[in-house]
Design goal:
Order of helices and strands: HEEEHEEHEEEHEHHHEHEHEHEHH
Strand order of the largest sheet: 3-4-6-9-10-11-12-13
CATH architecture: Alpha-Beta Barrel
Helix content: 25-40%
Number of domains: 1
Number of helices: 12
Largest sheet: 8 strands, parallel, barrel
Shape: globular
CATH topology: TIM Barrel
Strand content: 5-15%
CATH class: Alpha Beta
Bound molecules: flavin mononucleotide
Length: about 375
């Protein structure tokens, strides 16, 4: 990762560089950032958000409009919702998928538009594991049985998410390999569709998180038990992705940095994991989320509540981080980047409510390097 605004050549070093930085008129939030060969125009990323609006995993005009509007709204990195690697990997029957070429080609249309607006197109790949086969939020987010169009779920162990949820089938070795193969094929299709960043969804109680958290993994083979065994599926997943993802393109990982449950996965565990990822060199940013694997979780929710997680991972591992969670005020977003808590700020609901949040934040923070789409110039009155 390089910070384009702070990169120096042999003539611009030390105190000289600091003086130039002090003179830089643009807020930190609007300084470009590079990961491998990819440069984003600012530090704002659209957080992945399921739209529950697909049929058979296919993107449609809703997804085109939703992602396209955030690109025209000035977002630096426009990330899709969780796109699932196989039909049984979906959270709901209405989630996006990438298990066939028609899905790839429909995503490619969105990629072309997002890129044409100056944003970097990113895709989140996911597998819901034991939390698959549920209804949409407006249908209650409760398990859908196979008799109603749902399906049987898989997980590291035959442990349900909650007492009222169905018990998943524990994956055997062939099953694990099949999931890794599906992930590699989805990654290949993501590359063919033209995405420039791929994010592995390893958070929120979905399949990969189920493997690394001791709360959901009771295996006795080399995918369970010790810390090294529980993170093995995540490491294998990264290897599967990197086998199909070019070395010059970045790969992000979204982690649940803590389970927020006594006896669960902790921030210390995440630091240890990220030190391993840093040494391996295949991951470019940790997107620091939390929770989702156990209904007993106690999350202290307030503005910027997950920023300390991003700060700690960044400080103790040297890996770039993304901060997410109730970061809706431009000043807060700016201070997170300026203080070095995180390299990117991700907005979810704030960008659902207002696709032009970045353009308005640029005005509020007096950025001089942001232009509105010419079609919208006359609305630049905020
Ligand atoms: C409607 C909705 C759908 C979401 N879908 C996903 C998803 O597909 N993948 C994911 O990692 N997080 C998902 N999230 C979590 C968001 O990406 C984000 O982490 C969370 O909403 C906190 O950020 P915010 O306060 O800016 O909304 C979703 C959140 C919402 C509100």
């Amino acid at each position: 990762m390089t910070d384009s605004s702070t990169s120096t050549d042999s003539r611009v070093t030390g105190e000289n560089a600091r003086r130039i930085l002090r003179r830089d008129p643009n807020p930190h939030l609007f300084r470009p950032i590079s990961f491998r060969s990819v440069t984003a125009r600012n530090r704002i990323m659209l957080s992945p958000m399921c739209q529950y609006s697909a049929q058979d995993g296919m993107p449609n005009d809703w997804h085109f409009t939703h992602l396209g509007a955030r690109a025209t709204g000035g977002v630096g990195i426009v990330c899709t919702e969780a796109v699932h690697v196989s039909p049984h990997a979906r959270i709901t029957p209405h989630d996006l998928g990438l298990w066939n070429d028609a899905q790839r080609d429909a995503l490619a249309r969105i990629v072309r538009f997002v890129s044409a607006q100056g944003a970097v197109p990113a895709i989140q790949l996911g597998h819901a594991g034991r939390k698959a086969s549920v209804g949409r939020p407006w249908e209650g987010s409760i398990p859908v049985p196979a008799s109603d169009g749902g399906w049987n779920t898989v997980a590291p162990s035959a442990l349900p998410y909650a007492d009222t949820w169905p018990t998943p089938a524990a994956l055997d070795r062939d099953g694990i390999q099949a999931e890794l193969d599906a992930l590699a094929q989805a990654t290949r299709r993501a590359r063919e569709a033209g995405f420039q960043i791929v994010e592995l969804h390893a958070a929120h109680g979905y399949l990969i998180h189920q493997f690394y958290s001791p709360l959901s993994n009771a295996r006795t083979d080399d995918y369970g038990g010790s810390f090294d065994n529980r993170i093995r599926f995540l490491i294998d997943s990264l290897e599967a992705m990197r086998s199909e993802w070019p070395a010059d393109l970045p790969l992000f990982v979204r982690l649940s940095v803590t389970d927020w449950v006594t006896g669960g996965w902790t921030v210390d565990d995440s630091v240890a994991l990220c030190q391993i990822l840093k040494a391996r060199g295949d991951v470019d940013l940790i997107d620091c989320s939390s929770g989702g694997n156990d209904p007993r979780q106690q999350i202290p929710i307030h503005a910027g509540y997950q920023v300390p997680l991003a700060r700690r991972i960044r400080a103790e591992t040297g890996l770039p981080t993304g901060a997410v969670g109730l970061i809706n005020a431009p000043d807060l977003a700016e201070s997170i980047v300026a203080n070095g808590d995180a390299d990117l700020v991700l907005l979810g609901r704030g960008l659902l409510a207002d696709p032009h949040w970045p353009l308005k934040a640029a005005n509020a923070l007096k950025a001089q390097n942001v232009t509105w789409p010419v079609q919208y110039e006359r609305s630049n009155i905020f």
